[in-house]
Design goal:
This protein is of the alpha+beta class and 92 residues long. Helices cover 35% and strands 18% of the residues. Helix 1 (51-62) crosses helix 2.
Length: 92
C-alpha cells in the first residue's frame, strides 16, 4: 500500500513532477517557479511579487483567458510548498 501523500502521476502526464519546477527557500519565505513567478507568504496566504509580469509573458503561448488562472494556480502551489514542501512531494 502506498502511504505517500502525493498521488502517483504517470510520467507522460503534463502534471508529472510539477514540484521540480520550483525553487523553495523556506527561511527566506520565497518560492520561485521556473516561469519566473516569485511567491511569498503574507498573513498565511500566497502573494505573487511579479504576477503582472508573468501573466504578460504567458499570454502569447496560453492566451489572456488562461494566463491569469495559471498564475493564480501557481501562487497556490508556491504557498503550499513554502508551508510544507515535503508534504507535496518536493525533493529540493
Amino acid at each position: 500500500m502506498n502511504s505517500s501523500p502525493v498521488a502517483p502521476v504517470p510520467p507522460s502526464s503534463k502534471h508529472a513532477l510539477w514540484q521540480t519546477r520550483w525553487d523553495i527557500d523556506q527561511v527566506g519565505n520565497l518560492a520561485v517557479h521556473d516561469s519566473g513567478l516569485r511567491v511569498r507568504l503574507q498573513d498565511g496566504c500566497g502573494v505573487a511579487e511579479n504576477a503582472a509580469e508573468v501573466i504578460e509573458s504567458l499570454v502569447p503561448k496560453h492566451g489572456a483567458h488562461n494566463a491569469q488562472a495559471m498564475v493564480q494556480r501557481l501562487v497556490r502551489e508556491g504557498a503550499q510548498l513554502i508551508i510544507d514542501p515535503y508534504s507535496r512531494g518536493w525533493r529540493g
